[in-house]
């Protein structure tokens, strides 16, 4: 078996050597407040149909979702957004689950992942829990994750009827400790697939980049907050590194997107074996897709955005695929000098 150090070395070599098969156009961030979208802690977004989209907040006071409509320009950028309604279940008021990811399954409803209970529950369109949920393997249960590093990511491929999720950082059984600046090692993750009958399929081993922050901030967050099924063979993995110094000056959020192709022959053969003891050849190869960062400078640009959600938007006439990203503003938290904003951003992915 190869060590974590050798995993990192191999991963860095792969990152340098592989070329991405797509090109990405990035549009500027849009502040959703300009269109009257209510303030939130938006941690997920899902396309429903047409111009209908669902937003989920990790500080909701009840199960449910927020409906918005989004219209697009021919370029793929957003033309405007409109708030439609909150669809919350009054029976669950005061029992928030720390909802993080959301997907829509046509003809059924929504599935929502949450860190507080490590469950992925189905909601009807009015926000009411149906009683159904994904059959999450025991390795992902609450006692097996590090605090606040559970399920955030959730995606669904309509054509294949497959769900995907992972934890933000490694499980207790796979890593000695979560990735921190004191222990700046890559996170070792299990990408978990589920079938349309809500049963678990295969797991795939994935390793993140190592943190690049060189100073010790007041707030630090690291890991994978979102996955996106780009097509029936390809996942986009969002890696996020966030650091905020005590006075917030020079705060940064770094987003790195990677492509992986979890074909069945790449699945973990022995899921009981800790990932830190797994051969490096078992980890998915990843291809860099796109990277960007936002930040706060008290005497300069203030575009900080903590991106956590991602979904597909419309296909363009030229074949380009739009991808929407939403940021968590902590309900537009701030002070007299600066307030975080509810940003949404569009990328367009095209084949070279």
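Q: What amino acid sequence fits the structure above?
A:
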């Amino acid at each position: 078996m190869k060590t974590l150090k050798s995993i990192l070395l191999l991963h860095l070599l792969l990152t340098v050597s592989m070329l991405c098969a797509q090109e990405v156009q990035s549009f500027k961030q849009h502040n959703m407040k300009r269109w009257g979208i209510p303030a939130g802690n938006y941690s997920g977004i899902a396309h429903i149909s047409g111009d209908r989209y669902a937003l989920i907040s990790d500080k909701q006071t009840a199960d449910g979702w927020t409906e918005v409509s989004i219209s697009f320009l021919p370029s793929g950028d957003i033309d405007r957004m409109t708030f439609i309604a909150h669809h919350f279940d009054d029976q669950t008021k005061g029992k928030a689950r720390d909802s993080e990811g959301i997907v829509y399954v046509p003809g059924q409803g929504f599935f929502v992942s949450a860190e507080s209970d490590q469950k992925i529950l189905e909601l009807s369109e009015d926000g009411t829990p149906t009683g159904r949920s994904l059959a999450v393997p025991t390795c992902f249960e609450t006692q097996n994750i590090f605090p606040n590093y559970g399920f955030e990511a959730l995606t669904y491929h309509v054509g294949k009827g497959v769900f995907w999720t992972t934890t933000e950082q490694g499980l207790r059984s796979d890593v000695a400790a979560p990735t921190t600046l004191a222990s700046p090692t890559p996170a070792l993750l299990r990408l978990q697939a589920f079938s349309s009958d809500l049963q678990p399929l295969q797991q795939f081993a994935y390793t993140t980049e190592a943190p690049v922050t060189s100073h010790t901030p007041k707030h630090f967050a690291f890991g994978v907050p979102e996955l996106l099924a780009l097509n029936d063979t390809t996942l986009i993995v969002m890696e996020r590194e966030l650091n905020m110094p005590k006075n917030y000056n020079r705060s940064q959020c770094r987003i790195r997107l990677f492509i992986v192709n979890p074909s069945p022959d790449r699945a973990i053969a022995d899921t009981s074996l800790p990932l830190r003891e797994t051969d490096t050849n078992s980890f998915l190869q990843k291809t860099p897709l796109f990277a960007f960062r936002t930040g706060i400078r008290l005497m300069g640009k203030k575009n900080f955005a903590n991106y956590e959600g991602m979904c597909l938007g419309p296909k363009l006439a030229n074949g380009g695929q739009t991808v929407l990203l939403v940021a968590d503003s902590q309900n537009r938290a701030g002070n007299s000098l600066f307030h975080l904003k509810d940003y949404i951003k569009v990328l367009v992915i095209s084949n070279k």
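Q: And what stands out in the fold?
A: Residues 1-5, 7-19 have pLDDT under 50 and may be disordered.
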